[in-house]
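A reminder from the course coordinator: this example appears on the midterm review sheet, so study it carefully.

Given structure:
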């Protein structure tokens, strides 16, 4: 993790421009970055930045876990056998389509 103390920006005038109370954190494995200057104290900003970085990392891992769970659920639903009613409806529509196709055929010698 990279930690830097940099000069803040924004409202505050000369005081904010002269002090390095803004905290910049970068989590190297994930590449997440946080910049915090919510308070005037460097230590308070450091704590706030670390908490924000932890929240971002946790959200990232929660999202990955949710995607894995959704993929497992999708394969489970896909491989689940059809219900009896659903299967009968599917077979009924297949028979209707077969009858339509038979009507489209050219008449043969047996017809």
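Designed residues:
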């Amino acid at each position: 993790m990279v930690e830097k103390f940099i000069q803040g920006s924004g409202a505050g005038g000369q005081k904010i421009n002269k002090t390095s109370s803004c905290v910049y954190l970068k989590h190297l494995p994930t590449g997440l970055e946080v910049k915090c200057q919510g308070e005037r104290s460097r230590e308070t900003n450091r704590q706030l930045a670390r908490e924000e970085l932890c929240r971002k990392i946790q959200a990232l891992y929660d999202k990955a876990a949710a995607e894995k769970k959704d993929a497992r659920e999708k394969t489970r639903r896909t491989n689940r056998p059809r219900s009896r009613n659903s299967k009968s409806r599917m077979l009924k529509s297949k028979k209707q389509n077969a009858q339509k196709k038979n009507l489209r055929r050219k008449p043969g010698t047996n017809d």
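The first strand starts at residue 2 and ends at 6. The radius of gyration is 32 Å.
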